[in-house]
Design a protein that fits this description.
Elements lengths: L1 H30 L5 H12 L5 H61 L3 H21 L2 E3 L12 E7 L10 E6 L2 E3 L2 E4 L1 E6 L1
Parallel strand pairs: 2-6
Antiparallel strand pairs: 1-4, 3-6, 4-5
Length: 197
């Protein structure tokens, strides 16, 4: 009998809990100032904020894609134009510096026809050559020293091999056909050389 009364007590307790919950919800509904009118407004707001359908999402994504594509294309064109302008202006300052050397050559060529003193002409050409070499060194260009050095494929380009005039020159550079140059420690042009064997 004790079991039956325990079960009855438990059922009674559950029934009381359920009633309290229901009363609490009803009380909360009564405390609302709009008494249900808010639910209609809330439902309307929820309807307005519904997620867009698949077609709307697709249209939005396509619009974003087109805008991004156009923006990237404009960026690419602008940077290409800036790069070309930068290259033009860099070459401009180099060429302006070379014009003085060109003027010196023009004056030397004019004076060769009227010159009677060959030594003066030679001296003038040496001065022009020194001025031009000074200009190259200012730009970071320096000559690769290749004469009678060990053949190095990183610096030299072998044109041919000839019998070495002496045992010391075997495997070394015997003659430099065309000078090579560095530009800031990077090979600008390889020296064309003849190797002794």
């Amino acid at each position: 009998m004790a079991k039956k009364s325990d079960n009855a007590d438990k059922q009674q307790d559950k029934k009381i809990e359920v009633e309290e919950k229901l009363n609490g919800e009803e009380l909360q509904d009564e405390l609302r100032p709009d008494n249900g009118a808010g639910e209609e407004a809330h439902d309307k707001v929820v309807e307005d904020q519904k997620e867009p359908g698949p077609e709307e999402k697709l249209a939005e994504l396509q619009d974003k894609y087109l805008r991004l594509s156009a923006e990237y294309d404009n960026f690419r064109k602008r940077t290409l134009k800036e790069k070309i302008d930068l290259q033009r202006s860099a070459n401009e300052s180099l060429l302006v510096s070379l014009l003085s050397v060109s003027d010196d050559f023009d004056r030397a060529l004019q004076s060769i026809d009227d010159a009677r003193d060959i030594a003066a002409v030679k001296e003038g050409l040496k001065l022009i050559s020194a001025k031009f070499n000074g200009f190259l060194s200012q730009q970071g260009v320096k000559e690769i020293d290749a004469g009678h050095k060990e053949f190095d494929t990183d610096l030299h380009e072998a044109i041919t091999k000839i019998p070495a005039p002496s045992k010391k020159l075997k495997g070394k550079v015997v003659d430099v056909v065309q000078k090579g140059y560095f530009l800031n420690e990077k090979v600008l042009r390889y020296a064309k050389v003849v190797i002794g064997e």
